[in-house]
């Protein structure tokens, strides 16, 4: 028999007989949440214990994403969003988004302000959302301000992170952008 065949067979047999350990990333658990930790002392109710309904202005979540504009001057995109205002319910937010496009014909910049309604609460495994807004677009051949449409969904990835898939329409639906990325999950629920 060929020695190469014997060597490959011996390597495969060894690999199958070795104990295989599952490799997991470690997740940090704060000391007060570890098993057997003494309960935290009771404290007076704070502002953070209040119901989450109401107008809140703070950084609620952010995301980074990449994607492509698939029609009208196709481009590769990099961008980010910041959810900064909650509108009387945890599911309605105002967010800013910024995208830079590379490719045909030149670099483009898009900055948008959008009202987004999340159809599920933040503690669910999948969160679809829709939104409308106004955006500024500049690609050296066109500088415009126009309405924007956004729709997408987030899927739970880790305790404080979500995958996101998003469709972003600009210029009266003439520019279609598809994005994928990671978003923070408020409160780490």
Give the helix/strand layout.
Blueprint: H1 3-17, E1 56-69, E2 75-86, E3 92-103, E4 108-118, E5 126-138, E6 143-158, E7 161-170, E8 175-184
3D structure, described in words:
- With 189 residues, this protein is mostly beta strands.
- The protein has a single domain, classed as Porin, CATH 2.40.160.20.
- Helices cover 8% and strands 52% of the residues.
- It has one helix and eight strands, in the order H-E-E-E-E-E-E-E-E.
- Strand 5 and strand 6 form a beta hairpin.
- The longest helix has 15 residues.
- It starts with a helix and ends in a 5-residue tail after the last strand.
What features would you highlight for this structure?
8 strands, mainly beta, 189 residues, 8-stranded antiparallel beta barrel, 1 helix, flat, Porin
């Amino acid at each position: 028999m060929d020695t190469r065949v014997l060597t490959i067979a011996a390597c495969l047999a060894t690999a199958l007989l070795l104990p295989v350990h599952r490799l997991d990333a470690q997740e940090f658990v704060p000391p007060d949440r570890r098993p057997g930790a003494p309960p935290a002392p009771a404290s007076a109710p704070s502002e953070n214990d209040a119901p989450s309904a109401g107008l809140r202005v703070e950084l609620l979540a952010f995301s980074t994403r990449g994607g492509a504009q698939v029609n009208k001057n196709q481009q590769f995109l990099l961008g980010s969003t910041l959810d900064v205002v909650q509108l009387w319910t945890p599911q309605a937010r105002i967010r800013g988004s910024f995208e830079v496009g590379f490719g045909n014909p030149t670099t483009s910049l898009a900055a948008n302000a959008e009202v987004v309604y999340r159809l599920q609460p933040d503690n669910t495994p999948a969160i679809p959302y829709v939104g409308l807004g106004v955006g500024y677009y500049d690609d050296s051949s066109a500088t415009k301000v126009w309405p924007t449409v956004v729709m997408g969904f987030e899927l739970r990835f880790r305790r404080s992170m979500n995958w996101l898939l998003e469709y972003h329409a600009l210029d009266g639906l003439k520019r279609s952008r598809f994005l994928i990325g990671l978003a923070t999950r408020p409160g780490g629920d």
